[in-house]
Design goal:
5-stranded mixed sheet, Immunoglobulin-like, mainly beta, rod-shaped, single chain
Length: about 325
């Protein structure tokens, strides 16, 4: 071959490669090109279509065969789950000679025909990247597919704060400050005033409006959170005192009414009796006066009787040196 002819051949080869590389494809589809040892194009894999080329002894392209790879589907698809999943792989080959094998890996590596052959459902009990492809009886391979399974069995953690952490309120309509934390994300929440009957689940948010039960006393609001893997948390709670009946406050000294135990103690005289309704007081008491007082709990709303009842104090009782004496009856300290 003369130098001139050799140069023309190289130019023609370069043009062929350029034309091959510029074959159009759509929708972000990945196209794979395969060459033999002589750098001749022998296969174009479009994912849903494969074109095979063969050559004669002198290098002329001889035949062109269009094949359609098999199709493998996974059930269930990848996603976030709260329990282990049994994944079934199914191969169909509607435009080909039929499925031969499905090859897969569960360690994130790309499977080959040396990888395990699928024969029964794959149990996935931890977060796993499953990759797989099918091969038909003519040796045409499907493009490798990937499914990621996130297995999360841990429920969310969280908090709830009523009215910004206030000890009491005069309105049953309160605002809740909410936090939820989870490795796969929080999706829903629901509330309750008794930890028995809960509201309809709603989308998770960092705040919500809520209505307390209307009678006076300590009010506890419960919340449960759900993550995107459908794990519901145990209840989280916060408590606030509701006083929405000003003529009838919970603490009394003589004929004087007080909304807090500390205010009643600060106003008491030596020998006074401080009477408290049979509720839970969300406060602490500091005994720091050189007087003797009696603290009686368990009274009804009219302060006429405290027989058989007690008052709970959710707080601390602190006494100081020289702080006098306090006699406590029908009271319990609550956590």
């Amino acid at each position: 071959m003369s130098p001139r002819i050799r140069k023309i051949s190289l130019i023609l080869m370069a043009m062929m490669i350029l034309l091959t590389i510029s074959i159009p494809f759509s929708h972000g589809q990945t196209v794979n090109y395969y060459y033999d040892d002589l750098n001749r194009l022998i296969r174009i894999d479009y994912g849903d279509t494969v074109i095979d080329y063969t050559y004669d002894d002198v290098g002329n392209r001889e035949t062109e065969r269009i094949a359609h790879p098999p199709i493998t589907t996974a059930n269930p698809l990848g996603g976030i789950y709260g329990t282990s999943q049994s994944v079934t792989l199914t191969c169909t080959d509607p435009q080909g000679p039929g499925c031969a094998n499905i090859y897969y890996t569960t360690d994130g590596s790309t499977p080959t025909t040396s990888s395990p052959t699928y024969s029964s459902p794959i149990l996935i009990s931890a977060t796993t990247t499953l990759k797989y492809f099918a091969r038909d009886t003519a040796g045409v391979n499907e493009t490798v597919k990937t499914q990621v399974y996130t297995i999360d069995t841990q429920p969310p953690t969280g908090t709830i704060v009523i009215q910004g952490g206030a000890e009491s309120t005069t309105s049953p309509n309160v605002n809740l400050t909410l936090t939820c934390s989870d490795s796969v994300g929080c999706s829903q929440m629901q509330f309750s005033n008794d930890n028995l009957t809960y509201s309809t689940p709603q989308a998770y948010a960092t705040s919500a409006a809520w209505t307390l039960t209307v009678w006076d006393g300590a009010k506890t609001v419960y919340v449960k959170y759900r993550d995107t893997a459908w794990n519901w948390s145990a209840p989280f709670s916060d408590t606030i005192a509701l006083w929405n009946d000003p003529p009838n406050p919970p603490v009394k000294v003589g004929e004087s009414n007080y909304t807090t135990l500390q205010a009643a103690y600060d106003a008491a005289a030596d020998g006074s009796t401080i009477k408290c309704q049979a509720i839970t007081l969300i406060e602490s008491l500091t005994v720091n006066r050189d007087i003797t007082v009696t603290l009686e709990g368990g009274y009804d709303s009219g302060f006429s009787s405290n027989y058989g009842n007690t008052t709970s104090m959710k707080g601390t009782l602190t006494t100081t040196t020289g702080g006098g004496k306090i006699i406590i009856e029908n009271f319990v300290l609550a956590q």
